[in-house]
């Protein structure tokens, strides 16, 4: 799986990049045919600094997208991965029900 990390308007630390890679790779347990993952981190500079993570996951025949905002990038990434996990599980159950 190819993982691309883009940090908009800031430079992401290696510890954050490692956390992102670990989180995204954990999705391989649920679907081993993931082609690539694009992670976009952006810093919303409003009254309180909001950190947004958007993950685009490409699997054969489909693209799954999840975005999440919180006060820390690690929380945003973990929440977005949780959303993708739910999407992957739903997709898997739909495929199983069609196969019957």
Outline the structure in words.
With 100 residues, the chain is α+β, with helices and mostly antiparallel strands. 39% of the residues lie in helices and 37% in strands. The protein has a four-stranded mixed sheet, with helices on one face. Strand 2 and strand 3 (49-59) form a beta hairpin. The relative contact order is 0.18. The model has no long low-confidence stretch (mean pLDDT 92).
Compute the number of strand runs: 4
Shape: elongated
- Residue-averaged pLDDT: 92
The span between the termini is 30 Å
Backbone structural class: alpha+beta
Cα gyration radius (Å) = 14 Å
Q: How much helix is in the residues?
A: 25-40%
- What is the chain-wise order of helices and strands? EHEEEH
Order the strands across the largest sheet as they lie in space.
Answer: 1-2-3-4
Summarize the model shown:
The chain is built from two helices and four strands.
Question: How is the topology of this model organized?
Answer:
Elements: E1 2-8, H1 14-25, E2 36-45, E3 49-59, E4 62-70, H2 73-99
Parallel strand pairs: 1-2
Antiparallel strand pairs: 2-3, 3-4
Helix pairs in contact: 1-2
List keywords for this structure.
2 helices; alpha+beta; 4 strands; 100 residues; four-stranded mixed β-sheet; single chain; 39% helix
